[in-house]
Amino acid sequence: METAEVTGEDVIARARAMIPALKERSARCVTDRDVPAETVADMRAAGFFRILQPRRWGGYEMHPNVFFEVQKALAEGCMSTGWMYGVVGCHPYELSLFPDRAQQEVWGSDADTLASSSYQPVGRVTRVDGGFRLSGHWGFSTGSAHCDWVLLGALVPPAEPGGAPDQRTFLLPRTDYRIDRDAWHVFGLQGTGSHDIIVEDAFVPEYRTHRGADGYACTNPGQAENDGPLYALPWAQIFVRSVSTAAFGGARAAVKAALDIAQSRISTNTGKASKDDPLLMNAIARAEAQIGEMEQALRLSFDALMSHAERGEPVPMRVRTINAYQSASVVRRLADLVDDMVQLLGGRAIYTHSSIIQPWLDLHAGRAHVANDPSLRSGDVVGSLLDQEPKFKFL
């Protein structure tokens, strides 16, 4: 435990200092289909998993923009690592929204305990005295090999006939599930370790569940103890950014790779130097400019969210819908920008050892996450402009 006061600048600087080591480990991360254990240990030691953790549990309880800056830096070194950090590192936020008894069970003996997740609502739920019986098979549990708990999505059947199902997140200890580590074979983001989770008729007490409706309405039981402005934010606003922000680091790595290739590449067919190609220079400049524009827009969005929370105001729905839309759109936009550079770098760029290929693949894999599909958000943006209730309530 650090005794001196840790600042946002401190942890961001630590993340940037890790970039060379992450680059050196990135090939092993991809080959092993998981973030190396020493990288996770380094992130723990640097305090990265404490950024969104409540102070009462030894966390830093910092502004979310600090968390996202750390994630971007890690992803510049290795986008799989940055993605894994974003997902696992945001879970202390959701855990802080659970009833205090659940927080005690996770952090009471070790405040460094980590949780993975899979929010797909695929679990089979039965109501029983004191809680639920849960079974199912979930995919995409990023970083699960490094975690002792898991957060799993499922729909709770209505208590009364004709009622609506209740979407919840179920919190389970490692003893209640197993990990299938041979399911994660993908073309990009291979190193995230997004393994499958299998649960066979586990009992989950009521207090180890988090209702989606509470996250949406910001009426979470954990806010009674964790009453700082940070925890008054809509939970989904944190999560959707956790699966888009790594793309900025990947895109910046791709820009640097394009510059490196361009400095030495001369076409054997035309004799032209890439560094003198105006089309390539325009693609690199456009990428650099638009990366910065998108970063600034998302940074300002969380400044605005925190301003509402610090004033004790609910975040207006128009703000929530546009923020979610902007977050959903950046991965596809960044992938398109990198596409434009790759297609102008000739044969040098197509080798698997090319420094631009892994971030290019990672960006395209990141597009597949449901939270990175802007088409799912457009109706609610328009609806909010017309003062209509949103249909997609993960906002």
Protein architecture, described:
This protein is 47% helix and 15% strand. It has 13 helices and 7 strands. It has a 7-stranded mixed beta sheet with strand order 5-6-2-1-3-4-7. A hairpin with a 2-residue loop joins strand 1 and strand 2 (131-141). The chain is globular, with a radius of gyration of 21 Å. The model has no long low-confidence stretch (mean pLDDT 95).
Q: Tell me, what is the CATH class of the largest domain? A: Mainly Alpha
From the alpha-carbon coordinates, what is the Rg to the nearest angstrom?
A: 21 Å
Low-confidence stretches: none
Tally of helical segments: 13
CATH architecture tag of the largest domain: Up-down Bundle
Largest sheet: 7 strands, mixed
Give me the CATH fold name of the largest domain.
Butyryl-CoA Dehydrogenase, subunit A, domain 3
Q: In total, how many domains does the architecture comprise?
A: 3
Helix-strand string? HHHHHHEEEEEEEHHHHHHH
Strands ordered across the widest β-sheet = 5-6-2-1-3-4-7
In short:
The chain is of the alpha+beta class and 395 residues long. It contains 13 helices and 7 strands.
Topology:
Blueprint: H1 8-17, H2 19-32, H3 37-45, H4 64-77, H5 79-95, H6 100-107, E1 115-128, E2 131-141, E3 149-156, E4 166-173, E5 178-180, E6 195-205, E7 209-211, H7 212-217, H8 235-242, H9 246-264, H10 278-310, H11 317-342, H12 357-366, H13 375-385
Parallel strand pairs: 1-3
Antiparallel strand pairs: 1-2, 2-6, 3-4, 4-7, 5-6
Helix pairs in contact: 1-4, 2-4, 4-5, 4-9, 5-8, 5-9, 8-11, 9-10, 9-11, 9-12, 10-11, 11-12, 11-13
